[in-house]
């Protein structure tokens, strides 16, 4: 991610995810962690590991109660909807990562850890 503050505005300001931890380095924000249910989204200024430096081929999907209010909120924030299905809106975060807002419900227990 190129700009933690810009990504924080998208994920926390627009999507409403609460900040749970912040890391600073040399007076600048290096990383911000946000809660998404039982999951933590780690917004890091520099990516670790192999792969492209920007965007991704992965989709980060969030549960949405109803799509209509999200369409209005995204439009008001100037975030275009790339695609949509009956159950999901597809957008991009400020760094080009694909994000889905979905009303799809998965069966209970599908996400149980297998560790």
The major β-sheet equals: 4 strands, mixed
Helix/strand structural class = alpha+beta
Strand order of the largest sheet: 4-7-6-5
Order of helices and strands: HEEEEHEEE
What global shape is seen? globular
Specify Rg, calculated over alpha carbons.
15 Å
| Share of helix, binned | 10-25%
Q: Helical segment tally? A: 2
Walk me through what this model shows.
A hairpin with a 2-residue loop joins β1 and β2. The protein has a four-stranded mixed beta sheet with strand order 4-7-6-5, covered by helices on one side. The chain has a three-stranded antiparallel beta sheet with strand order 1-2-3, covered by helices on one side. The mean pLDDT is 81. It is an alpha+beta fold and 115 residues long. The longest helix is centred in the first third of the chain and has 11 residues, at 4-14. The protein is built from two helices and seven strands. It is 18% helix and 34% strand.
Task: Give a nutshell description of this structure.
A hairpin with a 2-residue loop joins strand 1 (19-25) and strand 2.
């Amino acid at each position: 991610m190129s700009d933690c503050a810009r990504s924080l505005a998208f994920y926390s300001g627009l999507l409403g995810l609460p900040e749970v931890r912040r890391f600073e380095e040399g007076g600048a924000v290096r990383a911000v962690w946000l809660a998404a249910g039982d999951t933590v989204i780690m917004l890091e200024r520099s990516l670790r590991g192999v792969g492209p430096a920007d965007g991704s081929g992965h989709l980060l999907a969030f549960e949405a109660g109803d799509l209509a209010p999200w369409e209005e909120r995204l439009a008001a924030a100037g975030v275009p909807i790339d695609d949509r299905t009956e159950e999901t809106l597809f957008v991009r975060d400020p760094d080009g990562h694909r994000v889905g807002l979905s009303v799809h419900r998965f069966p209970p227990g599908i996400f149980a850890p297998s560790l």
